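Regression test attached.
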Amino acid sequence: EDQVTQSPEALRLQEGESSSLNCSYTVSGLRGLFWYRQDPGKGPEFLFTLYSAGEEKEKERLKATLTKKESFLHITAPKPEDSATYLCAPGRNTDKLIFGTGTRLQVFP
Amino acid sequence: EPEVTQTPSHQVTQMGQEVILRCVPISNHLYFYWYRQILGQKVEFLVSFYNNEISEKSEIFDDQFSVERPDGSNFTLKIRSTKLEDSAMYFCASSRGGRETQYFGPGTRLLVL
């Protein structure tokens, strides 16, 4: 059975305090792993797609990495506007994305 | 930048009533999806749609649900007889190709009383 686990569930950081979010997955026929950001009451906003182990993608203060069993989202020197829930979603070799429960990040000034 | 739009943003209905949720996918996208998110829970896949056919559906997507692309721009989700447990945020998404990045709309918050 497909499983996606994100940790920690919640993370509080001081502005400028770097950290990493983890996504562990067991998904058969993985075609890619997607990271999204979700603000309260809004739809998921696309951040990154990673297709193969060893791949890395960067965007501003965020960097996503992928291994065969995990993906990490590294946040460097976060700002309050980075506060959101970060969702990991492996995609099987079918249409659907399988979402984790997310990591709720709060960055305080 | 093109984006997925959804209407209405909020819908309140009585149990047993039919509701139709509407979506306008990104214009050059060919694959369309519906997901839902019950309050405090994870985003769950409902259905994918391509070439005027359902290509995949989850066990949640039972006979009470249907999807349609009535014209060249809209994509709809119909719930025939709503239940209390249908209360959730419903997200439409679209992608240019199958298994490519899916872009999500802002959602419709459905409340069934």
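Expected vs. actual: identical. The radius of gyration of chain B is 13 Å.
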